[in-house]
Amino acid sequence: MSEPADDLDLIGRRTAQRTSVVGALIDHGGFVGARALHDALRTQGARVGLNTVYRTLAALVEAGRADVVRDRGGERLFRHRAFPEHQHYLLCRACGLSTPVDSETVETWAARVADISGFAEVEHTVELTGLCPRCRASS
Amino acid sequence: MSEPADDLDLIGRRTAQRTSVVGALIDHGGFVGARALHDALRTQGARVGLNTVYRTLAALVEAGRADVVRDRGGERLFRHRAFPEHQHYLLCRACGLSTPVDSETVETWAARVADISGFAEVEHTVELTGLCPRCRASS
DNA sequence: CAAGGATCGGTAATGATTTTCATTATTGGC
DNA sequence: GCCAATAATGAAAATCATTACCGATCCTTG
User: Which end of chain A is more exposed for a tag (fewer CB within 10 A), N or C?
Assistant: First the structure.
C-alpha cells in the first residue's frame, strides 16, 4: 500500500492542504467528485479551498497517482491509484462503490486496434457501470 | 443506409427543425458537438434553436440512433448510427475523423465481467482516441 | 532575516447543457 | 379541410462543474 507522502513528493511542495486532500482521497477509497471531497474536508475541519482540491487532484492524475472517470452528469470522479498500473473499474451508479476488474483483455485489444489503425498515440477510456449487489437488493 | 425519415419516426413529431438537425448530423458523417452542428445549420440557412439541437440529439441517443463520446474538454460529441448495433470508434483528437473498430472482443469481455461481478444492469463506455495518419503527418 | 517563487483561496469568468415558459406547429378526429 | 389537444420550439435565464485571476500567504534558500 502507498503512503500519502509518496504522492505528495510527486506533485511539488508538501503543504498542509495537499496533505489533507490526498489523505481524504485515500480514505474515501472509491471514486469521488472534487466537490464532494471538498465538502468532506470542510466537514472534518480542514481549511482547504475548492480550487486547491481541483489543483491537487489534477496534479495527482498528471503524476499517474489517480484515475478519473466521468459520471453521467459529466462530473469527473477521482480515485487514488495505489499501484502504478493502468487500471479499469466497475462502478456502482447508485452508491459509487468501485471494484477493479481484470483489464488485460481490453488492454490487449486496444493495443491491437491501435496497431492496425494507422493512428498514433492511441489512448483509451473504458468505463463499466452497473448496480452493485447491495444497491440492486434495495431498489 | 438509413434515411432521416427512419430516425424522425422514432423520436416523436416530424418537424422541419428535427429534419434539418438529423440531416446535418448524417451529412457530417463523424462526431460533432451540438454547438458546431448548430453553427453549421445556421450557416446553411436553417432556423433552428440551439436547444432544439440538444433536444433532438438527446432523442436520437435515447432511440439508439446516435452514439455519444466526450472529448477532453467534457463536451459531448454525437455521431449518427446507421446500423442498430452498438459500435465503438477510434477518434482523431486533432481533426475529429472517426472510424468504427472491431468491437466484438470488448463486448464479450464486458459481458463476462458483468457476469462474474454480481452487478446488475452493467453498461460500458469505450473510447479510443489518437492521431490519424494525416494529422500525424502534418504535426 | 529578506527575497523569490510556489501555493492558497475567494471570487469572477467560462462553457456546455438544461430549464422555463409563452408562442407556434403538428396531428388525429370530425 | 378545420379545430382543438398537445407536443415542439426558441430566447433568455438558470445550473453546474471547472478554470482563470489575483492579491495575500507560506516555504525555502541564501
Answer: N
Q: pLDDT tens for residues A23-74?
A: 999 999 999 999 999 999 999 999 999 999 999 999 999 999 999 999 988 9
- Whole-model pTM: value is 0.90
For residue A58, the chain B residues in CB contact (below 8 A) are: none
Tell me the nearest-neighbour CA distance from A8 into chain B, angstroms: 26
Asked whether the CA dihedral A15, A10, B70, B124 is positive or negative, the reply is negative
Distances (CA, A) of A71 to A68, A103, A131, B23: 10, 20, 14, 30
**A129 chain-B contacts, CB cut-off 8 A:** 122-125
pLDDT tens digits for range B91-123: 999 888 999 999 999 999 999 999 999 999 999
CA→C1' distance for A38 and D23 (Å): 23
**Nucleotides in chain D near protein beta carbons (<7 Å):** 7-12, 16-21, 26-28
